[in-house]
Amino acid sequence: MKAEFSFLVNNDTVSGQYYPAMVLLDFLRNEKHLTGTKEGCREGDCGACTVLIGTMNKGQMVYHTANSCLLPLANVHNKHVVTIEGITPGEMTPVQRAFVHEGATQCGFCTPGFIVSLTGYLINAQYAEMADAKDSIAGNICRCTGHAAIIRAAQSVVAEMEEVFSKSDRIGSLIGKGYLPEYFTLIPERIRLLEEKTPVPNDETVSGFIGGGTDLFVQKPDELLERDHVYLMNNDIHFIRSEEHRCIVGAGVTFQRFAESDIIRDQIPDIENFMKLIASLPIRNSATIGGNIVNASPIGDMTVLLLALGADITLVKKSEKRKFPLHELYLGYKTLAKEPDEFIRSVSFDYLSSDHRVNFKKVSKRTHLDIATVNSAICIATIDDLILEVRISAGGVAPFPLLLQNTSAYLLNKHINKATITEAAKIAQEEISPISDIRGSADYKRTLLDRLIRAHFIELFPHYISFEELI
User: Fold this and answer.
1) What pLDDT, in 10s, does the model give residues 166-188?
2) pTM, whole model, 2 decimals?
3) Residue 43 — φ and ψ, nearest 5°?
4) Residue 417 CB: number of other CB atoms within 10 A?
5) Which of 69, 148, 442, 464 has the most CB within a 10 Å radius?
């Protein structure tokens, strides 16, 4: 069923009846004939379809990159969609000129996505750091093997941007230097008027709930078109707060917002490094915590991390709420202890003390931005080499993300040494039931988990256990 949506596409206002599950890429190319946004993999992997999405936040526009091939129109209601045409309505921008100067384009199919991603970096980055610029384009692939020239182009952009990064009015400064067109100055007021005129639809139909949709729109985009869903990106579940010595995270929080939160960084200092193993920036900008949990993938990265943190989950059904440990949600493969008309409101976990340490590891065919073969997380508290509290989780070794309860129970009140860790790895083998699939054999996955458990202790406690001793 179609619904009424309003949003801005570049400098134009769009308002009308559309299928909520139509992905933005199809709308841009087929309805608006903005063909600079390219269709490549249609799985959020190549970045050819990258656009900027602007959202009003406390009176200011906040922009982030997104894969338009996985973004339903329902999730851009009252937002600003910026394509390559909207960045460069006239002359080339300095980013485009850098690409020309460095010869950073061959067939050109990928180029719009790179330009949009680097422009997003210029809007959002706190510092002129090449590492951040590289991360901003990590989700963009050049199939002509032109990455060396693209990196040089990015370096030249970063080198010229020191003055812009020091300005409080980033958008105004970028407009003044030609990186953005002048119409951006009017966008906040236009979005405010849209929000007043066309509030978020209040759809009580329940045939399913959709958050970020970064996996759903890979698996069954056509099927989603035929159904009515509640789109949770429009609900009030986008919070991260502290409450009674607990971290409370709304299910609509995106991976990137989770990684950038001061509350989360205080609890998990290495969270940004962990996130770079999980997904590219455009995916992290769309994928949600609740979506990763309810998807129930056996290798769900965020779920594996939350299990190690001892997270609880809160489900909501109209005015009713219930809360229980996250590991009790999973009953079998894609089988949840959840009613069809319930959705995840939040997850929460106790504050970690200074004695706690957290680690996340994964093995995949590509080191970064790939689906895990096996992943694992640990949250452990010690005094010297004595283990006071520990939880180890694993993915890819069972029908669902698994909390290794027996392994964790064995480690309590043990000293960190070769014998303890070897026995813990042995107990873990009794808890898992991997299967052979395209990512590896069952035996291979058993070996990987053994090595990942050992790697947690080697990385976190090198003064008590060494690589040579344990491996």
Assistant:
1) 778 899 999 999 999 999 999 99
2) 0.93
3) -130, 10
4) 15
5) 69
